[in-house]
Write a sequence for this structure.
């Protein structure tokens, strides 16, 4: 069974600083990879996804993520954070064979705090 | 509608009561998923429909939990004889096919 590890439960970053949120997955083949953001009282919003092709994917709100097969990682980055980026971030995987139709396996999330 | 909607947004019930949680998918989305999210955790997969057919219910924790989608659109997740450990956020997502899942706002269930 696949699993997702987000090693950082909380991260504090100053506004304007760069950000990297870590995600490692365990799966036999190349899975489909996703990053979602959850703001208080809101549903999960998709930031970006990787299915195949270019390993550096661009998402909404200035986020990007890089798939590294050798490290089984899919880290999320942003060059300069804004106070509105404060939220809970979830990495998720789906079996590649299902084409994304299977249920997602989520990590436990990373809570991002932005300091003024 | 424009997005996935869920109702009620909040549900408080007493232990032993049955509850029904509703999910309205994005129009035309054939796939529908239910997840449960405990406080401080990521969502956990419960079950999945393709049209009206329940494709996978391996994540349902026990036989008190059931789900249906009789006409391939609206879905209901039912929890019978609720227990305090059932308290969580229940999330629904839908997808147009084998692609991105779009999530609703969730239903916060509290069992007293």
């Amino acid at each position: 069974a696949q699993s997702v590890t987000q090693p950082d439960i909380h991260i504090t970053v100053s506004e304007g600083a760069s950000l990297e949120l870590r995600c490692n997955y365990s799966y036999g083949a190349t899975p489909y990879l996703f990053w979602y953001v959850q703001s208080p009282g809101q549903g999960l919003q998709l930031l970006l996804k990787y299915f195949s092709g270019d390993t550096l994917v661009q998402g909404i709100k200035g986020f990007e993520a890089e798939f590294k097969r050798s490290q089984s990682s899919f880290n999320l980055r942003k060059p300069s954070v804004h106070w509105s980026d404060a939220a809970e971030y979830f990495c998720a995987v789906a079996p590649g064979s299902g084409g994304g139709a299977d249920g997602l396996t989520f990590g436990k999330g990373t809570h991002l705090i932005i300091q003024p | 509608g424009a997005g996935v909607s869920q109702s009620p947004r909040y549900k408080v019930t007493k232990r032993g009561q049955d509850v029904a949680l509703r999910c309205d998918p994005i129009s035309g989305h054939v796939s529908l998923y239910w997840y449960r999210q405990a406080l401080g955790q990521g969502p956990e997969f419960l079950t999945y429909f393709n049209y009206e057919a329940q494709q996978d219910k391996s994540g349902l924790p026990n036989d008190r939990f059931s789900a249906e989608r009789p006409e391939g659109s609206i879905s209901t997740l039912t929890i019978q004889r609720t227990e305090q450990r059932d308290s969580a956020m229940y999330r629904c997502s839908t997808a147009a096919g084998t692609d991105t899942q779009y999530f609703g706002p969730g239903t916060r269930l509290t069992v007293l």
